[in-house]
């Protein structure tokens, strides 16, 4: 998975230095010199992490962060500051910022912090029930996962075949193709990524268990505690990697 970062900082030299470090670690990076420009870029593209200076011309970093959250509540933002602006920093962290880097920060501190907040992987949730997908997506995003949604088996097969997916959550009953059929088709083309099957048919639980016996990482019967899904995903997840180097 190629991780995408947005750096919002009016200090161009500092922003480019940070961008160079991230690109050497495999990130694809975009720069914005103001909060307003950052909003435009954030609205146009999704980013796995944003590094945001607190003091910016026009909209400050906290105001920009709040706008990001309005655009996408799942925005993952690290604040940066070289000034004594404790009230703004406290406000940003209180509103969900991932943390604060105080300028000048060492390369090791930057990389250690990014490793801590880096997305755990990209999860494909394939389920034709919009309520289930809508309820599970924010939980996964909150715990650091990038989430893709598929509404039927054919869409699931196409998205699961794309690079970057690290875990599958497949409903057994979907239009066009069942979750098990998707899994078997993927298996024909090579070993599929860790797969968790789900079903809302409690009365067919025994049949479902027989269906997926020997396949995937297990079966969860709806409704289930999202914490259970997270535990299974964490146990099944491959080691995290930064991805390939992309120029800015």
Q: Helicity, in percent?
A: 40-55%
Strand content: 15-25%
Radius of gyration, CA atoms, in whole angstroms: 20 Å
CATH class of the largest domain: Alpha Beta
Mean pLDDT: 82
CATH fold name of the largest domain, please? Rossmann fold
How many distinct beta strands?
A: 10
User: How far is the first residue's CA from the last residue's CA?
Assistant: 16 Å
Strand order of the largest sheet: 2-1-3-4-5
- Assign the CATH architecture of the largest domain: 3-Layer(aba) Sandwich
Would you identify the regions where 5 or more consecutive residues have pLDDT less than 50? Answer: 240-248
Anisotropy-based shape: elongated
What structural class do you assign from the helix and strand content? alpha/beta
Write the CATH homologous superfamily of the largest domain. Response regulator
Task: List the secondary-structure elements in sequence, H or E.
Answer: EHEHEHEHEHEHEHEHEHEH
Number of domains: 2
Structure annotation, total helices: 10
- Major sheet description: 5 strands, parallel
What's a quick, concise take on this entry?
With 248 residues, the chain is α/β, with parallel strands linked by helices. Helix content is 42%, strand content 21%.
């Amino acid at each position: 998975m190629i991780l995408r970062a947005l750096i919002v900082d009016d200090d161009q030299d500092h922003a480019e230095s940070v961008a160079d470090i991230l690109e050497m670690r495999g990130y694809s990076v975009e720069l914005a010199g103001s909060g307003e420009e950052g909003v435009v870029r954030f609205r146009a593209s999704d980013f796995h992490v944003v590094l945001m200076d607190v003091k910016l011309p026009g909209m400050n970093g906290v105001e920009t962060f709040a706008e990001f959250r309005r655009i996408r509540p799942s925005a993952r933002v690290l604040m940066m500051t070289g000034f004594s602006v404790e009230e703004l920093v406290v406000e940003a962290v209180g509103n969900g910022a991932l943390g604060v880097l105080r300028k000048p920060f060492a390369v090791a501190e930057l990389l250690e912090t990014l490793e801590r907040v880096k997305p755990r992987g990209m999860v494909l949730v394939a389920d034709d029930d919009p309520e289930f997908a809508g309820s599970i997506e924010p939980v996964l995003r909150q715990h650091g996962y990038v989430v893709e949604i598929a509404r039927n088996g054919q869409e699931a097969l196409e998205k699961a075949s794309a690079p970057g997916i690290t875990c599958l959550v497949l409903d057994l009953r979907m239009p066009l193709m069942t979750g098990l059929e998707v899994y078997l088709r993927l298996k024909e083309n090579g070993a599929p990524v860790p797969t968790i099957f789900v079903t809302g048919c409690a009365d067919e639980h025994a049949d479902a268990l027989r269906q997926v016996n020997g396949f995937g990482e297990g079966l969860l019967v709806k409704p289930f505690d999202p914490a259970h899904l997270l535990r299974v995903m964490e146990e099944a997840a491959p080691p995290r990697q930064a991805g390939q180097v992309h120029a800015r």
